[in-house]
Amino acid sequence: MDKLRALEYFAATAHEGSFSAGARALGVSAQAVTKLVGALERSLESKLFDRTSQGMSLTAAGARYLEECLPALEQLHAAEERTRDATNRSKGTVVVGIQHAVASTCVTAALPRFHALYPEIELDVRDFPRPTEANASGIDVMLILGWPELPDLVHRRLGAGRFIVVAAPSYWAAHGVPQRPKELEQHECFPIRGVDGTIMDLWTFVRSGVEESALARGWLTTSNPHRDVAADLALAGEGVIRIIDWMHLPDQRAGRLVRVLADWESSEAPPLNLMFRPSVRRIPRVKAFIDFITALFRDIDSARGERVAPSAKPIWLRRRYARTSVARAT
């Protein structure tokens, strides 16, 4: 008799309440479970289950035996998982396609923790500006801002966010703090050009059902891959930027970037998407990275204290516009 398997069949039967249910949970036949549990009872010379027309239940001896066996089974399963993890993470490279804005503002700082957990997995991180079938070739996992449409890939929405308006304390001290969104038009605002080429220069807010927009203009516009330029200038006190609330968290927490108009909602922020081919999730090293990134953004959501609903695809993405302000006007 396979004693370990007999113990697993016995525990599953006790938990599920019948041989057939225990067999379904284990993915084996009811006949196999019945036979092995019977052999276990004979070896112990003790009846483990009372069987009646109404069902089955543990005997006093069976309940005592289960209580004494469960810790050993749990320790064995834990040891198997640790051994399996150590084996599975020993080799291989995960190719990660990621937009620069996501990498620089959030993910990069977390990668040393991933390396500490999986020291023998290598990451090959590549710039991934636009989600297309051609760009996705050869990449295991993609992290994409926006509303991508790649139907052949598994698509998980990792996290939504809201836009917030920030600048350095020195900037607000020198130029005043806006009390309404429209007042941003009197400030040096640095809009971003999206990956599709549209300059996002119309910053829209809502408060108590009232919408108000500001035309964000300044002496600098940056493309999405180079938005760090705008952030660095904002940190230096040169102007105002609009960012997703989970970006630049260390600067926000340290007070180097200060939010204004906090009582106004700006919910057009693109959600963050995790995408991968269905076949790669069975590869342990890829699954480890997927699980890590998913947990990272789950923690960000928890720290926010509320769940933000993902934004609908904005109107300016349905057609190609030079500026979002033009899209709103048409």
CATH architecture of the largest domain: 3-Layer(aba) Sandwich
User: Rounded to an integer, what's the Rg over CA atoms?
Assistant: 28 Å
Major sheet summary line: 5 strands, mixed
Q: What proportion of the residues is helical, as a percent range?
A: 40-55%
Provide the β-strand percentage band.
15-25%
End-to-end CA span? 78 Å
Q: What is the class of the largest domain in the CATH system?
A: Alpha Beta
Tally of strands: 15
- SSE string: HHHEEHEHEHEEEHEEEEEHEHEEHH
Structural class: alpha+beta
Number of helices: 11
Structure write-up:
With 330 residues, the protein is α+β, with helices and mostly antiparallel strands. The chain folds into 3 domains: 86 residues, Arc Repressor Mutant, subunit A (Orthogonal Bundle); 102 residues, Periplasmic binding protein-like II (D-Maltodextrin-Binding Protein, domain 2, 3-Layer(aba) Sandwich), CATH 3.40.190; 122 residues, 3-Layer(aba) Sandwich (D-Maltodextrin-Binding Protein, domain 2), CATH 3.40.190. It contains 11 helices and 15 strands. A 5-stranded mixed sheet has the order 4-3-5-15-6, with helices on one face. The chain has a 3-stranded antiparallel sheet with strand order 13-7-14. A 3-stranded mixed sheet has the order 9-8-12, with helices on one face. Helix 1 crosses helix 2, helix 1 packs across helix 4 and helix 2 packs across helix 3. The longest helix has 29 residues. It is elongated.
